[in-house]
Predict the structure.
Amino acid sequence: MTAPLDGLTVVEVGQGITAAYCTLLLSSLGAEVIKVEPLRGDETRRLGPFPQDVPDRERSGQFLALNRNKRSIALDLDTPTGQDLFRSLVQRADIVVENEAPGRMAERGIGYEHFVEAQPALVWTSITPFGQAGEYRDRQATEITLFAHGGLMVLVGDVAREPLMFQGNPMLHSAGLYAFSATMLAVHLAEATGVGQQVDSAILDGIAASHFQAMMDYEYAGLVRRRGPMHMPIPTMDGFISFTVQAHQYADFRRLIMGEEAGAAVEQESAVERDRRRAEGEMDNEILMWSVQQTKYDAYHQAQSAHVPAAFLAGPQDLLESPQYEHRDFWVTIPHPDAGELKYPGFPAQLTGVEPSWSPAPRLGEHADQILADFAGLTADEISDVRAAGVIR
Amino acid sequence: MSQAPLPLHGVRVLDMGQFWAAPNAGRALADAGAEVIKVEACARPDPLRIQARGIYPDHVPGEDHWNRSGMVNERNRSKLSLTLDLSSERGKDIFLRLVGLSDVVMQNYSSRVMPGLGLGYDTLSKVNPQIIMVSVMSQGLEGPESEYVSYGQNLEQLGGISYFSGYPDDETSSVGFALPDPLAGATTALAVISALRHRELTGRGMHIDLSQREAASLVIGDSLVEYSITGEAPARLGNQEPGAHPSECYPCNGDDRWVAIVVRNDDDWARLCQAMGRPDLVGHPDFATVIGRKRNRAALDQLVSGWTCQHDPYQALALLQLAGVPSGAVLTPRELFRDPHLRERGFWERVEDPSAGVQEYYGRPHRLSMTELGTRSPTPTLGQHNRQILQGLLGMSDTDIEELESEGVIGNRPLLGSSGGMARGAQ
């Protein structure tokens, strides 16, 4: 069976989320990924929570999730030998994905410009908060500061309180999604023409390109949108649900909450009358009386069966037990020598004739010997020497 | 910069996407050089053409308001527009002939619509075995919840993004933005680009059955794996980043003005003290360690906000960044448009729309060193390229086109009473 990205070799120099998520997705579709870690490991290895709160670099949930399907080599890129070994890895690669600070790789003599002459088809993707050029290039940023600066945070939360971020770093992950597309566009071209290039992927730019309507409100009509009133979840017996009912669904919604007659009545009303009643929240009490008598699942299924867009606030356990996810085999179980057998989210799309395969995240430096033998042609003795010199571990 | 050809030059896409996620993916492909034909029916145009939320130039809907909707014009740049009534035999016939000449079909109707029209993947792949069809579904094409309708905010909750987020002191608070839409759009684009390579390797097309709910869960997948490890759902942390104390949005001078500040470690604390002009606090026993900063959080917040309140967000940001503290001003849309960094990077793209005039729209999250991706033409007016496509690709005559117009198979204005959308499967 052929996977879409078969035959592509990727070298990742990634700390944290953005680059690792990009290459996780590349590997999910068939690319071979070599992860180059610093000697003390990717910083996510040190992030808890850990089982029984005991820190263990092989049992960080975030590391395990982001680095499946990869091979690891721990390499000191600040030493000349480490840089040489890195060069030999890149020589055999089609793609480099890195998220070092802008200019950092070049300072070490292993930036894109040091490879392009010998490897014109190489695609080199750099993912940074603000991009490789521009006033903010060297600034310090994290998920919340980028969410703020990208104009989304002012729109999220209760207008009477401070703006809110989303937990789980969705923006850093989305940077990995965007970088994937840009990388593969460049690969597409490189495979057709032999000409590779550098991809400068900026997290901030991805956030600024994720607006629903606020930017258009301003650009088209000068309106500065702020946070709406909080979208209040509705309590049920065991959790929260919510509805997003559009005008044309209101009759079905009233039928669901107040019965057939009340629903039919909506269909006789003028649109103006209907919108006035909706705006007044005519059913607020009835909705609550309806919802608190049932479970979140019952409320969700009943509403959806009545064609009313509804959701429940799904937590991790709900997702792990979701019959819909089960039906699509979204969860994949992967055994790991230290962390044991865990469930991981798979790929969010099913592709005809493509079956993703999964291997666990690597231990720190697990594949160093194999990689150095295959990529750099080192003998066992030579590998022992570089290890003794503290260049690899 | 020497200019390479556009990466997707020669790729033709029939983009039936509506709302946000799928049209955005189509735009990404169009900006990369694909010929993307936005296919709509006059009776069921992209719903955002009609439900424009009042977003028209200067609030004026105008004679042809469906061509002046900001959200449509933002997301459908670089495309061609074809109208086609797919419920008619002639419309279907034309569509299938176009499928024979295309590489990709994208759609995000609810799961039963395309098979119901007789235009499911089985049919399309018989016409063109190399076709790549992508169905951007709420929850996938099959399974017990596959027919459920949802919008971005529903999927945000169903996919688990909302669960961890909200004010820590108010369990009924929930955050909502519809993040699954831009995420699903980006996932769709990357899946299509990968499928094109797969076709080059194998000579075969494929059907991509994409679940937006799963795409949402995948971006918080790390948290879900952490849950599998510990069996404990993470506490609701508001604006706190894991391990950072403090990590918060602090008030600035002015109405609803804020700056986000993150102190990752003791070094960041020293930098923050320097930014605030309070070097005396660096070694203060209450705040010098992470334990102290957690324990004395209320006093700390008072101290920091006492400083931030004296500055506007950009001033505070400049001082914080000068000292090296991770920080971000909470920008309004107006400020984002004017932000000097994004201006310097040429992020915003100026486009002259046929009906909406000169406007600026967001650009793309990446720059390629050899290839300039970007808006190649404004969002087309409804049916703008009917003639060009039907004559140019299918060799139809003027008489054929007039016939199709009079039968209502094609047209250039929405039919009266249409509220848009074939079925609102997902945004």
Observations:
- The first strand of chain B starts at residue 12 and ends at 15.
- Residues 40 and 83 of chain B are 5 Å apart (CA to CA).
